[in-house]
Amino acid sequence: MTETVNNKDRMEEQLVIDKQYKLQERSKAVEIIRKAMDLAREEIPKGKVATYIPELGKVDPHQLGIVVNPLKGEKICMGDYDVRFTMQSVCKVIMLIVALEICGRRNVFKRVGMEPSGEAFDSLVELDVNNSKPYNPLINSGGLALCGLLLPELSFQDILRFTRNICSDPEIDLNEAAYDSEMKTCSRNRSIAYLLESKGIITTEVEDTLRFYTKMCSMSATAETLSNLGVVLANDGVCVETGKRFMSSRTARIAKTLMLTCGMYDGSGTFAIKVGIPTKSGVGGGLLSVSDKRAGIGVFGPALDSQGNSIAGCKLLREISNELRLNLFYDPEWNREEEEENELIKKIRESHVI
Ligand code: GLN
Fold first, then answer.
1. Is the pTM of this model over 0.70?
2. pLDDT tens digits for 2-31?
3. What is the CATH number of the domain that holds 33?
4. How many domains does the chain have?
5. Residue 166 sits in which domain range?
6. 36 lines ligand 1 (CB under 6 A)
7. Which of 96, 278, 292, 315 has a CB 3.0–4.6 Å from the CB of 40, allowing a cystine?
8. Could you tell which of 188, 217, 299 is best to mutate to test the pocket of ligand 1, judged by most ligand atoms within 8 Å of the CB?
C-alpha cells in the first residue's frame, strides 16, 4: 500500500518537473525547436518526395512544419504546420483504433500480427513465404487486412467523421486528386490485397477493400491535426479539452506500443534508439508522434528517406526528443556521452592504437 502511494507521488513529481521544464519555460522550448528546425532543414536535399503516387510527386519537398501539443499548456506551432497533406500510412493508426474498438482485439489479431516485419512497407514477400497473416497492422498488408475487417461494419464517411472528431479538425476531407492518382498506380497494393484474399484474410470484395483503404490514405491532414490526435493518445484515449473518450485506454496502449515497434517500417528499431518516441509515418511526409502523458506531436516534411519516412521530420524529432524530455527512456547524459565518446575515439586514433 505504502509502496503504491510512494510510486504515485514519484510519478506526480516527475510530471511537475516536466511541466516546469516544458510548459512554464515555453520560450526555452520554442528556442530548442527553432534550432532543431534549422538543423532538420539541412537534411531536405538528401530526401525525395514519393513519386510512385504521381500526385505526391508534385508536392514541394522544401516544406517543414511541426506542432508540439502538450497535455497541459499551449501548443507550439512552427514552419509549415498548417499546410494540408495526405495522411497516407498515418491513417493506419486510425484504422487500428477503429478496428480494435468495433471488432475487438481477438478479431483484429486473428488477421494481423504484432511483430515488426523488417521489410519495406509495401512488401509482400514475407507475407507469401513466411506467414499466414501480415506481420503487423501498420504496414500496407496489415492496413488492407484491417480494411477487410472494417468494410462490412462502416462506410468511408463514418471513418471520415471519426477522424475529424478525434483530430479536432472538421476540415479533414478526401483529397480526390491523390486518391485517383493512387488508384491508377496501386498494382502492388492490389497484389497484396489479392494475396490476402487467397489466404482467407480478406473475405470482402477485393476491389472495394482496396478503394476503402486508398480513400483512408488520401484523407487530408496538417501537422496540427496530427498533434491533436497524438495528444488524445498521450492522454490514454481521452480528449484533454472536452474529457470525451474516443477509445479504451487498452486500445490507446496497443496503438502506442505498435507505433514504437512498427511505426517506421524497417527503420523502426533505429528510430526507437535515436528518438524514442512512438511514431507513425506516411509517404505524404506526415509523422504522428506520442510522448506518453506529455505531448502529441505532428510533423510535416514531404522529402523522404529510402525507407519512406520524412527525412527532415526524423531529424527534427531526434533533435528535440532528448532536449524536451520526450524520449521514453530519457537520459540526461545521452548527448554528453556521445560527445565524450567521440573525444575518446579521437584520442585513441591520435595515439595510433587503432
Ligand atoms: N497509400 C500508401 C500506400 O498504400 C501509404 C504508404 C505509406 O504511407 N507508407 O502505398
1. yes
2. 333 334 343 433 433 354 444 447 888 899
3. 3.40.710.10
4. 1
5. 2-327
6. no
7. 315
8. 217
